[in-house]
Amino acid sequence: MKYIKIIFLAMVAAVLTTACSDDDLSNTSIFNDATEEEQTEFDKWIYENYTKPYNIDLVYRYQDYETNNQYNVVPADVDKVKALTIIMKHIWVEAYNEVAGEDFLKQYCFRKFQFIGSPEYNENGSIVLGTAEGGLKVTLFVVNWLNPDNIFIDSESPFPTTSNDPLDLNFWYFHTMHHEFCHILTQHKNYSTDFQTISAGKYHSSDWINVEDKDAPLEGFVTGYASGEYNEDFAEIYSTYVTKTDEAWQKILDAGVDKTTNDTSGRDAILAKLDIIKSYFQDSWGIDLDELRSVVLRRSAEVKDLDLKNLK
């Protein structure tokens, strides 16, 4: 289709050149320059709160070249993007600022967030929660499912709440954002290879999708996705730990104990890996994981008091 359009434009250009070669040409383009598009109040707010301080580009207008054309998706509703970006700033951006300082995100954060209104559905019926490209761009889906008047952030359930009524922002957005950000950090600074040995031989490289989250702890993993391979295991423990309360985390650990045999190997593996993760973040980044968790949970609880309709 794009090839046909190129040929068509070339033919038009040739005809115009032939027919108008003797006419004076205007120096004013007949095409709208996207960079000169009038800035809305929301665009200016994005610039002041994301682009200017962190060099982050928020793409909320639908752009097909930014999306995977194998899927049919719809644009995100602007008012719902507005609400989500206000929440993101409070829970995610300012949480890292509070614990690690503003320069931390300025140096290591993603450079682009894209917002899509609908899910991406796979052939097997599964839904894509989010995508990350080279540590630079993150795409968040199902924005149109968000209800700004009924914000729900589930930090208390040990396993993900997949319902979209109300939409659990931890499941759909913040777990994914912490997970992908963890990958960026471990690409900059390696973690101990001792982590790989704890669950060696137990990873489900080809069939992790069949491991249910509630069953994963018995094998030493916090989620089914974590059982895929050790890098995902590392990021899943990190993102789960910082978004779940102590009570929820304890329930995950309890699920790692075989009630029939009293085998605690699953729980022990999770705790051993968490110790390595805590040491890594403290030694490599100066981040106390328990402090970050406390800040994330506190800010999550504060969302109910945020004004999600008016930009400030």
Task: Set out the fold topology.
Layout: H1 2-19, H2 41-54, E1 57-59, H3 78-100, H4 102-108, E2 112-115, E3 120-121, E4 127-128, E5 130-133, E6 137-140, H5 169-188, H6 194-198, H7 230-243, H8 246-254, H9 265-285, H10 289-302
Helix pairs in contact: 3-4, 3-10, 5-7
Protein described:
With 312 residues, the protein is an alpha/beta fold. The chain has helices spanning 2-19, 41-54, 78-100, 102-108, 169-188, 194-198, 230-243, 246-254, 265-285, 289-302, and strands at residues 57-59, 112-115, 120-121, 127-128, 130-133, 137-140. The strands form two sheets. The chain has a four-stranded mixed beta sheet, with helices on one face. A hairpin with a 3-residue loop joins strand 5 and strand 6. Helix 3 packs across helix 4 (102-108), helix 3 packs antiparallel against helix 10 (289-302) and helix 5 (169-188) packs across helix 7. The longest helix has 23 residues, at 78-100. 31% of the residues are buried.
Q: Low-confidence runs (pLDDT<50, min 5 residues)? A: 1-35
Q: Give the tally of β-strands.
A: 6
Category by helix and strand content: alpha/beta
Distance between the termini: 43 Å
Mean pLDDT: 86
Radius of gyration: 23 Å
In helices, the fraction of residues equals 40-55%
Q: Please report the number of helical segments.
A: 10
Q: Can you list the strand order of the major beta sheet?
A: 1-2-6-5
Which series of helices and strands comes N to C? HHEHHEEEEEHHHHHH
* Overall form: globular
How does the major sheet shape up? Answer: 4 strands, mixed
Percent of residues in beta strands? Answer: 5-15%
